[in-house]
């Protein structure tokens, strides 16, 4: 009996989170009310409060659940880039570092039946006007962004630290915009529609950010690599 009750609680919690993900992705965090969410999940308001304490508690739990694997993957890949470079006695490759940070953000969406919903949730969290929600989101990425910054510092030791930090923030801005556009597939009137696969999007975005962050430094490194090969 106790096992069945625990399973029922877990099922209710999962249903609430899945419904919240869908509603937040479509309507946003502010426009989605707890009552609407409870109705859509077919649970009572008390169940939401029981499992999450509040709407903000639900948002925090949802973002941690959905983004946790992405952040862990970023940390793992960036650490591997640093270790590989160190073992070979060279600075980390710029494109490898950028890809290690960018690719995991899109990786999970490839295996999901509704990847647009997941990407829309990430995009909304990045663009969120509510400071509390935005702080939850940015707080989750502090560890991976710090490792990203440190890796890029090793790759670009001659670049002033403040300049590098700003350029990385510009890159994150491009990432968030790309995720939002991929999720809603917007197209300006008269322009081509977006037909690229996720792999193509990632490759293009990595090149864009790597070039934007490194600038002439990347071209110099590519030239040096060509001359020594």
TrEMBL record:
<dbReference type="InterPro" id="IPR001647">
    <property type="entry name" value="HTH_TetR"/>
</dbReference>
<dbReference type="GO" id="GO:0003700">
    <property type="term" value="F:DNA-binding transcription factor activity"/>
</dbReference>
<keyword id="KW-0238">DNA-binding</keyword>
<feature type="domain" description="HTH tetR-type">
    <location>
        <begin position="10"/>
        <end position="70"/>
    </location>
</feature>
<dbReference type="InterPro" id="IPR041586">
    <property type="entry name" value="PsrA_TetR_C"/>
</dbReference>
<dbReference type="Pfam" id="PF00440">
    <property type="entry name" value="TetR_N"/>
</dbReference>
<dbReference type="InterPro" id="IPR023772">
    <property type="entry name" value="DNA-bd_HTH_TetR-type_CS"/>
</dbReference>
<feature type="DNA-binding region" description="H-T-H motif">
    <location>
        <begin position="33"/>
        <end position="52"/>
    </location>
</feature>
<dbReference type="Pfam" id="PF17939">
    <property type="entry name" value="TetR_C_30"/>
</dbReference>
<dbReference type="GO" id="GO:0000976">
    <property type="term" value="F:transcription cis-regulatory region binding"/>
</dbReference>
<dbReference type="InterPro" id="IPR050109">
    <property type="entry name" value="HTH-type_TetR-like_transc_reg"/>
</dbReference>
<dbReference type="InterPro" id="IPR009057">
    <property type="entry name" value="Homeodomain-like_sf"/>
</dbReference>
<protein>
    <recommendedName>
        <fullName>HTH tetR-type domain-containing protein</fullName>
    </recommendedName>
</protein>
<dbReference type="InterPro" id="IPR036271">
    <property type="entry name" value="Tet_transcr_reg_TetR-rel_C_sf"/>
</dbReference>
